[in-house]
Design brief:
The protein is an all-alpha fold. Helices cover about 75% and strands about 0% of the residues. The protein contains 5 helices and no strands.
Length: about 100
């Protein structure tokens, strides 16, 4: 996989748009208090990932983006889960 420094500007922009699309879906899911609480009850990283992969809001495109951007290595999974935790913190601050 190419690093960001080796990618062209168009490729970087495409990845950012894909990431924004995916994270907006994640935010939409977590804006529901019941869904957010359900996610918080999950303990294992696998269960947390599967929560999003199997959620009815996630379409095939979003699932492919999630797998490509965040599920290809353990480090990327941890980055994704940290981003989800940050979204939850932002939602809690807004409420």
């Amino acid at each position: 996989m190419m690093t960001k420094s080796k990618m062209g500007a168009g490729e970087q922009e495409r990845l950012m748009l894909s990431d924004n699309f995916l994270m907006e879906k994640v935010r939409y899911i977590l804006n529901s208090p019941s869904q957010c609480e359900e996610y918080r009850r999950l303990i294992s990283n696998d269960d947390k990932i599967n929560f999003f992969l199997n959620h009815f809001i996630m379409n095939d495109y979003a699932i492919r983006q999630m797998k490509n951007l965040y599920l290809s290595s353990e480090n990327r999974i941890l980055v994704f889960l940290e981003m989800v935790d940050e979204i939850i913190r932002e939602i809690n601050q807004d409420n």
